[in-house]
Amino acid sequence: MGLEKIKLMSLYTDFRKDVAYIEKELERSVQSSSPIVRQASLHLLKAGGKRIRPIFVILAAQFGNYSLEKAAKVAVSLELIHMASLVHDDVIDDSDMRRGLETVKAKWNNRVAMYAGDFIFSRALTSIGSIEKEAVHRILAETMLEICKGEIIQIDFQRQTDQGMRDYLQRIKRKTALLLASSCELGALSADADAETVRKLRRYGYFTGMAFQIVDDILDITSTDAELGKPAGSDLLNGHITLPILYIKDDAEFRPYMERAFAGNMLESDRQNMLRYIRQSDAIDKAQHVSDLYLEKALKELDGLPNGKSKKALIQIADFIGQRKY
Amino acid sequence: MGLEKIKLMSLYTDFRKDVAYIEKELERSVQSSSPIVRQASLHLLKAGGKRIRPIFVILAAQFGNYSLEKAAKVAVSLELIHMASLVHDDVIDDSDMRRGLETVKAKWNNRVAMYAGDFIFSRALTSIGSIEKEAVHRILAETMLEICKGEIIQIDFQRQTDQGMRDYLQRIKRKTALLLASSCELGALSADADAETVRKLRRYGYFTGMAFQIVDDILDITSTDAELGKPAGSDLLNGHITLPILYIKDDAEFRPYMERAFAGNMLESDRQNMLRYIRQSDAIDKAQHVSDLYLEKALKELDGLPNGKSKKALIQIADFIGQRKY
């Protein structure tokens, strides 16, 4: 387990048993009679991640009539959709490493990665299939649709230097914020929380999601390769322009770095120089400021919700996102 | 429009308006703000296909309280799932041509094909999302899961000469029969047909689906390249063992052909000789016989269902499958 996950888990000790239950359900859900699929899915599951989506589902469901069994179905579904999109992303990005482990497409191949993604996608639908609430299915379908659109638009924008803040925000909304928003919304909705609470929690999830992705994009530049489990600057090497880069991309000294990164002919020393150049600029602080604004908005949504262990945990998670270092 | 489609359409003239309505809804459903996705999806849609899934939905729904609007939602969903799996298959099989048109992965690339598949998949869920019946969502989720499993198992079996009838039947069940079975079942179910009718129609769909795929696999050998819109014998060249091949694979004179096809070093003259050898054997007749048995079973399921235009069309479709030549 990564250090970050341990730190995050300390924020919701009250719900540790629930998270452990969901972890078991996740493992059970990717069992398959095909050895390749089972291995690929378990590999992916073991690679971990922070399980933020399941945690959001649990915490949001606390604001209604909490049932662990119901919340677990929703949580498993959302985490699996997240996992499926990661596998497909690795094919697209041609990534060999994720979170310090080999990716499915590197350990097996692109075909296995594609179908493992489809398989996990389908498992996600099976898990949520028994929740008898039309709105749940509608919201899930729409969320998946937007995520897919995002993945495709990401292709349109790859290696495009002519793009602005709006393009970036649209992209991270689809890449991260929508699924976190839906995690909160579906958690609350499946527990029959009242409409205003559902709305507030959805917005909390959305704003923390925006902040989370901005911080992720900052860390891609400020962290070491070891902390990331992959080369720092991978986003740029893959042709993705993130928020810090938006603030520096028209800098005359930076531009040649970006062009070489996009052209795929960057030496190791070049990459180090590029990272140093961005780190010393004000681009990181500017990006961090935007993340902070989103976190403020997120915390504001929690005003008016009943105090308790769950609200406390949601506040701590927002704080954690603002401060996380890897 | 292909000749085959015209012939098939003549079987259900009574439902031509309904099919046309669904065609419009299909087009509407793949609209997207991303130009690449819109173009890729429309390209796929225009490539046509026989729309057997939508037709089965309409015909099955006639046995309940028919609503075109409801049936169309189910039909669009099932046809889109079929389309999505085709796009992903083309990536796996590395196919450049399908139905005489370039595939998405050939016209654009593998990345576009993968995400266009995901996008269409999600659209399928959106289309069916508003049907308020838990069983519908459960059946759809399970069907998609089995299809995915099938696609993965297909990889396990590719270029495996040591396999039998059971493996083949399992494969075509997942590849084709399950989705046709679900088309009939969901069509009937969404129109509130009684349980016994739903069960009979599902089995009709399943048996015709098995026959349909066997005939498809036969045509891959007996048709000309022009009729197929791709090289005859493609299944073998892609390492897939179909029913006719099962009957001939241990023939000492045939085996070297198969080995060269699987190894990917087959000359054009070699391919022609291989096809001629299979066509002259009794493998085709044996396979055709299995298909006929399935069609008999399919027709038997229709006994006891009320006579009418819909039942007549279902009988004619089964007959058509038994006789189709391309």
From TrEMBL, chains A, B:
UniProt entry tagged with the keyword Transferase: yes
Q: Which GO molecular function annotations are given, in alphabetical order?
A: metal ion binding; prenyltransferase activity
Q: Which Pfam families match?
A: polyprenyl_synt
Cofactor field = Mg(2+)
UniProtKB keywords:
Magnesium, Metal-binding, Transferase
Which GO biological-process labels does this protein carry?
isoprenoid biosynthetic process
InterPro entries, from UniProt?
Answer: Isoprenoid_synthase_dom_sf, Polyprenyl_synt, Polyprenyl_synt_CS
PANTHER family hit by this protein:
ALL TRANS-POLYPRENYL-DIPHOSPHATE SYNTHASE PDSS1, GERANYLGERANYL PYROPHOSPHATE SYNTHASE
The record's family statement is: Belongs to the FPP/GGPP synthase family.
The entry's protein name is: Heptaprenyl diphosphate synthase
Its taxonomic path starts at: Bacteria, Bacillati, Bacillota, Bacilli, Bacillales
